[in-house]
């Protein structure tokens, strides 16, 4: 069996399409769980009497541990296969997601929020799994669509969690327990998803890695495996250029998820529900915008090759940086929402365009490449968190981020491919072999 050279969207009849749909569903639930706390922070702030510095610490904790886990999970996919890696992450991640509902102090809440960040590594497995299932002519679209639809879980969490809490209170749950009961929901969903992923997916079109290795079958995407994959990826300068660009697009996306609701409440005096809906609109752009970035990347590559993919990323990041500056200086809530949607469109498209490049960086070390670049997103988010803590002002932080994102777009221009790389791509499409 070979890689799929088209996306049969309404089919579950092949291993490739089962992996496609279950990866985005698993990622959606993980992203929902990852950011379920964010829209409830105005309530949680009052519950624990949190200071601005403590809220900044919580936002940093939410993304910090993800850096380490993303670096580890990529080589683990090469070694054990994405099926085992995803199932294990879902089960392990459900523990702190459920645990945060029982936090009794700032310290315990911070501890569980730190551990919840591990579920953000689900993104790397999602991108790995679709990369080994789809041929180069559609892999950019497959990667961007699964990541984008999964990312939408963050937007759904922004809008749904306040409504879920309000519904529970209407049903008689006390105000103090409303947010806690609401936070149990994503943890339970993760456990259910783990069972589905284990039952209905396989590692690659040919089967599962451990069975194929036992039969003596060579697996290109996991040829080196483990830390050899990481070391190979770390020696490629293009990996580090995309590490920076992904920090500037996905890092900003995570930062906005964490601060949007409370920013609208405190800066524009919106209600918790209205702020949640405004913040949700940013996350819901992922339903189509990230896939659009990958789709356009695939199309420009057909006529201009791999370097066109990098140039497209540069243009999208410029749009993101300028849009972010607009959002930072918006004077009213309507202007702020419009600006957020505009820069959000470019942000999500830039994320999709980045991972449309990932399968072509080094096919011998796909897990290492996906893991390092994915970790870059969280490094960007952590840096943004420390920037806000240092400046002490959200609006100034957004302005500074706009400038930094615009500058970082230059790293996309630095990503260049050799004549050999460019000649390989059409051959791989024709042969439908590993990308």
Automatic annotation (TrEMBL):
Residues 19-420 form the Major facilitator superfamily (MFS) profile domain. The chain crosses the membrane at residues 21-43, 55-73, 85-103, 109-128, 149-171, 177-198, 239-264, 270-289, 310-328, 334-358, 365-388, 400-419. The keyword Protein biosynthesis does not apply. It is found in: Membrane. It is a multi-pass membrane protein. It comes from the Bacteria. Keywords: Membrane, Nitrate assimilation, Transmembrane, Transmembrane helix. Its main location: membrane. Belongs to the major facilitator superfamily. Nitrate/nitrite porter (TC 2.A.1.8) family. This is MFS transporter. It comes from Herbaspirillum robiniae.
């Amino acid at each position: 069996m070979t890689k799929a050279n088209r996306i049969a969207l309404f089919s579950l009849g092949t291993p490739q399409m089962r992996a496609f749909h279950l990866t985005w569903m698993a990622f959606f639930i993980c992203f929902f769980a990852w950011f379920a706390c964010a829209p409830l922070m105005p309530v949680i702030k009052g519950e624990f009497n949190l200071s601005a510095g403590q809220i900044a610490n919580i936002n940093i904790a939410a993304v910090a541990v993800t850096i380490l886990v993303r670096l580890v999970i990529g080589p683990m996919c090469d070694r054990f296969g994405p099926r085992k890696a995803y199932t294990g992450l879902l089960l392990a991640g459900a523990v702190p997601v459920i645990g945060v509902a029982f936090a009794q102090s700032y310290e315990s809440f911070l501890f569980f929020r730190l551990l919840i960040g591990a579920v953000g590594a689900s993104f790397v497995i999602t991108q790995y799994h679709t990369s080994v299932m789809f041929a180069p002519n559609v892999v950019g679209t497959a990667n961007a669509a699964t990541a984008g639809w999964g990312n939408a879980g963050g937007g759904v969490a922004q809008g749904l969690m306040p409504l879920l809490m309000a519904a529970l209170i209407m049903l008689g749950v006390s105000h103090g327990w409303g947010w806690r009961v609401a936070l149990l929901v994503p943890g339970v969903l993760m456990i259910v998803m783990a069972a589905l992923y284990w039952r209905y997916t396989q590692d690659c079109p040919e089967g599962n890695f451990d069975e194929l290795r036992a039969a003596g079958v060579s697996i290109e995407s996991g040829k080196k495996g483990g830390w050899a994959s990481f070391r190979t990826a770390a020696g490629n300068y293009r990996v580090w250029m995309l590490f920076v660009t992904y920090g500037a697009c996905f890092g900003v996306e995570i930062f906005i998820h964490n601060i949007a609701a409370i920013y609208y409440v405190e800066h524009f005096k919106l209600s918790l529900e209205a702020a949640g809906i405004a913040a949700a609109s940013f996350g819901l752009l992922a339903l189509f915008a990230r896939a659009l970035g990958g789709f356009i990347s695939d199309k420009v590559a057909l006529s201009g090759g791999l370097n066109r993919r990098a140039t497209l990323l540069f243009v999208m990041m410029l749009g993101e940086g300028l849009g972010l500056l607009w959002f930072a200086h918006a004077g009213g809530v309507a202007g702020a929402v419009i600006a957020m949607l505009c820069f959000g469109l470019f942000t999500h498209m830039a994320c999709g365009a980045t991972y449309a490049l990932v399968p072509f960086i080094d096919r011998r070390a796909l897990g290492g490449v996906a893991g390092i670049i994915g970790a870059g997103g969280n490094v960007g988010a952590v840096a943004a968190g420390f920037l806000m803590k240092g400046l002490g002002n959200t609006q100034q932080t957004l302005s500074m981020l706009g400038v930094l994102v615009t500058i970082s777009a230059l790293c996309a221009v630095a990503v260049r491919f050799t004549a050999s790389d460019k000649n390989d791509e059409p051959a791989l499409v024709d042969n439908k072999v590993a990308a």
